[in-house]
């Protein structure tokens, strides 16, 4: 009887280990899948600062991966001239991290796990809710998340994919970078 119990204990111990390894592998898979989705989804285009060299296309600055519009660049000098006009031009910066249009001026957010300036305090639920609802920080009464964040393309992604993106965003190095707050269209120069 004692033998049986011991055998049972050993078996359940092994089952627990295999289970833990399985969970670990699943997590690694989710991070890999998330990285794939982030690259395929073009998140780096707007959220990663670029290395700019004359005559070369902007290259991703991987040391600052997904850390948003660089704080040392501050506010760009351009502003949308006529926020109400349907055909108002849209401007961006050479790094494609700041954008001006009829909505005012928006800055790509810091998506790294930095607690003060990134998504460190966010939960998986916050992230999924922000993408699904288009509300800042996923708060029901929050302001609308501004263009050109392609919410229309991401909001119908499966829970599994959004969880994978979140797992990947949690796995990248935290970068301290305080992205400026958006300038609302109402702060634009008045019309004559
Ligand atoms: C075309 C540019 C662009 C692309 C591509 C893009 N974003 Fe964004 N994103 C932005 C801008 C600009 C903001 C800031 C909007 C604001 O301040 O309301 C933003 C904000 C965010 C936020 C913060 C939302 C909030 O609550 O304020 C998250 C999270 C985010 N993006 C995730 C992603 C992910 C994940 C991808 C890729 C799957 C992605 N973005 C692709 C431009 C982009």
Q: State the end-to-end CA separation.
A: 93 Å
Shape: elongated
Q: Strands of the largest sheet, in order across it?
A: 3-4-5-6
Instruction: Name the quaternary structure.
Output: single chain
Radius of gyration using CA atoms only: 22 Å
Give the amount of beta strand, in percent: 5-15%
Main sheet overview? 4 strands, antiparallel
SSE pattern: HHEEEEEHHHE
The total of helices stands at 5
Q: How many beta strands in the DSSP annotation?
A: 6
Based on secondary structure, the structural category is alpha+beta
Helix percent band: 25-40%
Question: What average pLDDT do the residues reach?
Answer: 89
Poorly predicted runs of 5 or more residues: 188-192
List the ions, cofactors and other small molecules found in this model. heme C
Structural overview:
- It is a single chain.
- The chain is α+β, with helices and mostly antiparallel strands and 192 residues long.
- It has a domain at 33-74 and 109-179.
- The chain has helices at 2-40, 43-47, 124-133, 151-154, 159-171, and strands at residues 50-51, 59-60, 91-92, 98-101, 104-107, 183-184.
- The strands form two sheets. The protein has a four-stranded antiparallel sheet with strand order 3-4-5-6, with no helix packed on it. Strands 1-2 form a two-stranded antiparallel ribbon.
- Strand 4 and strand 5 form a beta hairpin.
- Helix 1 (2-40) crosses helix 5.
- The longest helix is centred in the N-terminal third of the chain and has 39 residues, at 2-40.
- The chain is elongated.
- Residues 188-192 have low confidence and may be disordered.
- The chain binds heme C.
- Heme C binds at residues 38, 41-43, 45-47, 99, 106-109, 111, 130, 136-137, 145-146, 148-150, 154, 165, 182.
- Heme C is lined by residues 38, 41-43, 45-47, 99, 106-109, 111, 130, 136-137, 145-146, 148-150, 154, 165, 182.
């Amino acid at each position: 009887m004692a033998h049986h119990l011991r055998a049972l204990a050993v078996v359940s111990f092994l089952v627990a280990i295999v289970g833990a390894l399985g969970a670990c592998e699943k997590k690694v898979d989710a991070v890999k899948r998330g990285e794939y989705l982030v690259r395929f989804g073009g998140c780096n285009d707007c959220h990663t600062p670029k290395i700019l060299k004359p005559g070369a296309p902007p290259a991703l600055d991987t040391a600052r991966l997904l850390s948003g519009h660089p704080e040392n660049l501050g506010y760009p000098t351009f502003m949308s001239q006529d926020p109400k006009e349907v055909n108002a031009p849209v401007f961006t910066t050479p790094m494609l991290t700041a954008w001006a249009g009829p909505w005012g001026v928006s800055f790509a957010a810091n998506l790294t796990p930095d607690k003060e300036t990134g998504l460190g305090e966010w939960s998986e639920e916050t992230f999924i809710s922000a993408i699904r609802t288009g509300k800042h920080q996923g708060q029901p009464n929050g302001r609308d998340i501004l263009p050109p964040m392609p919410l229309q393309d991401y909001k119908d992604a499966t829970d599994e994919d959004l969880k994978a993106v979140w797992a990947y965003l949690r796995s990248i190095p935290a970068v301290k970078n305080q992205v400026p707050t958006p300038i609302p269209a109402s702060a634009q120069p008045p019309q004559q």
